[in-house]
Amino acid sequence: MYVCLCHGVSDKKIRKLVSEQGVTDIKGIKKCTALGTQCGKCIRMAKDIINESAVVLYKQAS
């Protein structure tokens, strides 16, 4: 699913950045993509995806 329609950033891309590169916040996502730099409507959804992905990684590590 596309999270940022303005720049074509998908939930899969965000999850991959969290799991493979250890990105844990919007600032980190913005360093790797253009998410949130145009209209900004995607920020809330991206935060939710980051948090969900972090919880999954934490549970896998335990």
UniProtKB/TrEMBL annotation:
Cofactor(s) named in the record: [2Fe-2S] cluster
Lineage top rank: taxon: Bacteria
Keywords linked to the UniProt accession: 2Fe-2S, Electron transport, Iron, Iron-sulfur, Metal-binding, Transport
GO molecular function, one term: 2 iron, 2 sulfur cluster binding
Keyword Iron-sulfur applies: yes
Pfam families (UniProt xref): Fer2_BFD
UniProt keyword Iron-sulfur, yes or no: yes
Segment forming the signal sequence: none
Domain BFD-like [2Fe-2S]-binding, residue spans: 2-52
InterPro entries on file: BFD-associated_ferredoxin, BFD-like_2Fe2S-bd_dom, BFD-like_2Fe2S-bd_dom_sf
Similarity-based family: Belongs to the Bfd family.
Protein name: Bacterioferritin-associated ferredoxin
Phylogenetic placement of the source organism: Bacteria, Pseudomonadati, Pseudomonadota, Gammaproteobacteria, Vibrionales
